Amino acid sequence: MIKIVKKNNSLYISPCIDGLKKELSFKYSHKEKKKVSFFSRKLGKMIERLVDGPIKSEIVDLFVHDEEKDMLVTYAGLEQRLIEFLDGAMQEYKIVEAGIPMPKPCMENWIFDGLHLDQQNALQTMLSHGGGCMLEAATSAGKTYVIAGLCRAYTGHRGLIVTNRQTVASRLYDSLKKLCPKSNIGIYTSGKKVDGDTMIITAATLKNYDPSEIGYIVYDECHGASGTVRSEDLFMFNRSVRYGVSATIINDFNGMHNYLEAIFGPIVYRTTDSDVEDYGRASPLDIYLMNVDTGMIPDPKTQDLTMEKNGIWYNRHRNNIIKECCELTPDDQQLIIFVRTKYHLDHLKSFYLPDFDVYHGKLTQKEKNKTLDGFNSGKIKRIISTDSLAEGVDPSALFVTINANWMQSNVSVVQKAGRNRRLADGKSHGIVIDFNDMWDPRFERKAKNKISKYYNRGYTIIENAKPNLIKFCKT
What we know:
- The chain is of the alpha/beta class.
- It is built from 14 helices and 22 strands.
- It has helices spanning 20-23, 79-88, 117-127, 143-153, 166-179, 228-235, 257-264, 273-278, 304-313, 316-328, 342-351, 365-377, 410-418, 441-457, and strands at residues 2-7, 10-14, 25-40, 45-61, 63-66, 71-75, 93-97, 133-137, 159-163, 185-188, 193-194, 198-202, 216-220, 241-246, 267-271, 285-292, 334-338, 357-359, 382-385, 398-403, 430-437, 460-465.
- The chain has an eight-stranded mixed beta sheet with strand order 11-10-12-9-13-14-8-15, sandwiched between helices. Strands 18-19-17-20-21-16-22 form a seven-stranded parallel beta sheet, with helices on both faces.
- The longest helix is centred in the C-terminal third of the chain and has 17 residues, at 441-457.
């Protein structure tokens, strides 16, 4: 008989049977970080920075084994996986509840008010799970309404709604104040501070809250919680029910969704891109891939940053394609260009697109708010942005997205495309313009990896595209 003791978001399992350790481990593939030094003429001294090295794979254990007691301790989020393993191994077990019980959600009908049927089903499934869990829902599935339902269900308990960006926190605050009038919603960011029972915060401020006072946590865009710092902060809240919500939980590059499961619990509900389109709440996407066969051929020892600077930021052929696509886009349709760095943003603004608005981390909070309000309302039609606007932004009439990035994560590729899913008058489809950089094997390898993510999402792909062949919507 296997004994499983549940206590404060941990599971104590004894004895440890064959195969259990392997079940609670996963292969983690990642780029090794190397520290290199180089001479900066601007600074006049040697400086160091981290650069991506070769791919490494290692086994990550989600448990600790006390060999003397033959007891295995793991995360409560892995309970479902553990039970499925024991059932498959035909092992008898009993579960014992210990410690302070987690708060129980309200399941009355009013918490589902205003939700579409699929959102109701998602919320019902999450609340019925009996502990923390995750929702994977494509952009435009209405994750904010599900988050509102979770807040309603835990009315009367202290809670945290965690985001990765201040822009997302601000939008959530405005939405949840309207959707959850009984929940006393507050917000804590550098730009706004309002006290409440349920606080909307950025992940960096998690450590400011007493874990013993928090009954539940909802982490929006929870793929950002897989890092060491954020996960350790979350594990401090061992008496809190934790929910994760994101469009990109399963990152097929490195397998870190296994770690997210340990933090929050399993994925219990999914809404895909095609589902949202079938529900009539999102527009389909056409991905136009522009071949770029002209650029700097770097020395094999050239560092990534120098390659990007000469091959992407200052690549005239590539930047002229961006300019031509912008000129062809109808004037009444919103367009956003995503770049990875402010240096590329400044170069495009100075030499190619002087009339464009810009958004980046160096703006003052007042400038950010003004630009963001103008973009979301549709007053600003043309904007160049760093990844600051890649998540949690819903412009009213975005028709065209240009992804000018080179180095980016799988999550980032999907998030940027997802900004263009919102419905608008006259919008039959969203247009995403991206680049197949093919003049050098290293550029081409990164481009192919990025393009594969579009195919995996099921979008319509137009390869070997030309700016004059783009089929813009007729508004």
